[in-house]
Amino acid sequence: MSAPVPVMTVPGEPPPTADAVRASGLTRTYGSGSTAVHALGGRVGDGTAGVDVAFARGAFTAIMGPSGSGKSTLMHCLAGLDTPTGGQVFLGGTELTSLRDDQLTRLRRDRIGFVFQSFNLLPVLDARENIVLPMQLAGRRPDPTWFDAVVARLGLRDRLRHRPAELSGGQQQRVAVARALLPRPDVVFADEPTGNLDSRAGAEVLDLLRSSVRETGQTVVMVTHDPAAAAYADRVVLLADGRVAGDIDDPTADSVLAALRGLGA
After folding, report:
1. What secondary structure letter does DSSP report for 9?
2. What residue ranges of the chain have pLDDT lower than 70?
């Protein structure tokens, strides 16, 4: 793994920590009574500890586990998209779980990037407009030099005036990656980013995510069900039944597959 890239301190924001994002005692329950679903941790008050997990700054981490293990719920809680039932989530030195809704909205806009399986591009906008839209909505102007660097690295220079319907699936996902990277967020969360892509396009997107970590110090946390995709990461966090069930450093497709078999996946 390459040496960590130094992180600049931004005035008015908490100083950087070794962990880009972490959870402490995290639980998430949907519903109540006999129909309650305990997606993370155990029942409230049953003595079962919640989820404790941390994701290092400047690293590429994959979250894996059997269907229903809580991996997407964990990511949504870490990203401020879902509200935990109990416990705390920290983005650097900021506790997400103590923020008001308006504060959380600003934090997600300014310090978190998202790459989703379904791309989430607006069909009436071209690629360039889709990439810069979140920053425009936030009243921020993209850094032209950084924009050019991101677009060049993602191979999108000659596709910026094309609308999503005129792009391949792989190109659409590259636009989504560019949109997530442009604001230079603390963390990019990727939810099954290759799920709608063929193997070649998927490998290209994973290469881009990995290079964003190695070359620019970006932090990426990815949920995936694919051991081959997880092998692009520096580390794999395994979940089972809503709890952390293991950890793999320097994963390979074979080591991930073996670990998943051990979990009954």
Report:
1. P
2. 1-17, 42-48, 265
How many angstroms separate the Cα of 3 from the Cα of each of 71, 153, 160, 215, 252? 28, 21, 33, 10, 21
Residue 204 in contact with residue 176, Cβ under 8 Å?
no
Instruction: Compute φ and ψ for 8, nearest 5 degrees.
Output: -75, 145
Q: How far apart are CA 125 and CA 119, in angstroms?
A: 13
Q: Are 163 and 52 in contact (CB under 8 A)?
A: no
Rounded to an integer, what distance in angstroms lies between the CA atom of residue 232 and that of residue 256?
11
Model pTM? 0.87
* DSSP secondary structure letters along 111-131: HEEEEETT----TTS-HHHHH
In sequence order, what are the residues at sequence separation of 6 or more whose Cβ sits closer than 8 angstroms to the Cβ of residue 264?
A: 66, 240
8-state DSSP, 173:
H
CB 115 within 8 A of CB 188: yes
> What is the bridge-based pairing of β-strands 86-91 and 19-30?
antiparallel
Residue indicated by tokens 């793999």: 248
Q: Which helix (H) or strand (E) holds 121?
A: none
Separation CA 158–CA 54 (nearest Å): 39
Summarised one tens digit per residue, pLDDT across range 123-162 is 999 999 999 999 998 888 999 999 998 898 888 999 999 9
What is the set of domains in the chain, with CATH numbers? 58-72+100-262 (3.40.50.300)
Residues 224 and 153: their CA atoms lie apart, in Å, by 23
Contact indicator for 247, 231 with CB cutoff of 8 Å: no
